[in-house]
Amino acid sequence: MEGNLNNDPAGVEGCAVPVRVKKKAKADSSVIDVSGIPVGTGALTIIAGPCAVESYEQLLETAKAVKNAGGVILRGGAFKPRSSPYNFQGLGEAGIKMLADVSKQTGLPFVTEVMDTRMVEFVAGYADMLQVGSRNMHNYPLLIEVGKTRKPVLLKRGMMATIEEFLLSAEYILNQGNENVVLCERGIRTFETTTRNTLDLSAVPMLKHLTHLPVIVDPSHGTGHRWMVPSMAKASVAAGADGLIMEIHYKPEEALCDGHQSLSPDEFSLLMTDLKKVAKAIGRDLL
To answer: Fewer CB near the last or first residue (10 Å), C or N of the chain?
Structure first.
């Protein structure tokens, strides 16, 4: 395939792993520090928050619920890539500043998506971690720019991307000298229509086999159904994920974006209790 860097399949037929992301590139698995919160230590890192920042009250109340239940990193979208131009697009710069303020109040570092090379410097000035979303996994100029920041990057797998393409995108970031990359499996598009995406949990052990980078899972986008999130979150832990990123909203029924796949604070709290049990059963713990 065009773009392969070394034709080393690493023992996996048909998948050539780029130079810097491959497991042999480092003696140990990478641990990514997000303003004092490690990802990749073996303990589960739980990232949670609203799909989109809608108001200060919504963000603060949701962040408090995340922290009270044991989440350690806040997620929230200020710039939202939507399929329809008529859907809520986020609060933009105002949303970034709300995230920074709520982060300071709660002590939770935050991750937010950056969509445009022109906004990288601004967002990086506030965020503890930059997210490159599924739709932008192939946006190579953006990957290069976030790589230059040296900020931790949460790279989501493209909805129609192979594992090899996913790793090549990560290579773009590492090529800029930024090794602070966390990979996120968030579901891929298949012929199945009963779920928003098909959550490819086989990608977790495969990525752990091929690369030294931490791997987390997004069961919210991976399923598109609130009631499915707990089951797939627990399955992700059993599959070996280093963490989870989930959508939480203090009033899911009123959410302007993805309320149907967002857990309520009570649902999130119950799930966190179950995740501790699953983790313990396989010799792990929550961060």
So the answer is: N
Distance from first CA to last CA of the chain, Å, rounded? 39
d(CA 110, CA 129): 6
Tally of structural domains, the chain: 1
The structure tokens listed for 63 are 């962040």
Residue 162 located in a structural domain? yes
48 pLDDT above the threshold of 50: yes
Residue at 6 is within a domain? no
Identify the CA nearest to 287 among candidates 103, 121, 43: 43
CA 184 to CA 18: how far, in whole Å? 17
The Cα–Cα gap between 183 and 201 comes to: 13
Q: Is residue 97 part of a domain?
A: yes
Question: Cα(20)–Cα(15) distance, rounded to whole angstroms?
Answer: 15
* Cβ–Cβ < 8 Å for 48, 248: yes
Could you tell me if 214 and 30 are in contact, meaning their C-beta atoms sit under 8 angstroms apart?
A: yes
The boundaries of the domain holding residue 197 are 23-281
How do residues 144-198 score in pLDDT, each as one tens digit? Answer: 999 999 999 999 999 999 999 999 999 999 999 999 999 999 999 999 999 999 9
The predicted model scores a pTM of 0.93
Residues 223-255 have pLDDT tens digits of 999 999 999 999 999 999 999 999 999 999 999
Q: Is the dihedral of CA 154, 142, 7, 166 positive or negative?
A: positive
d(CA 29, CA 123): 28
- The pairing of strands 45-49 and 37-39 is unpaired
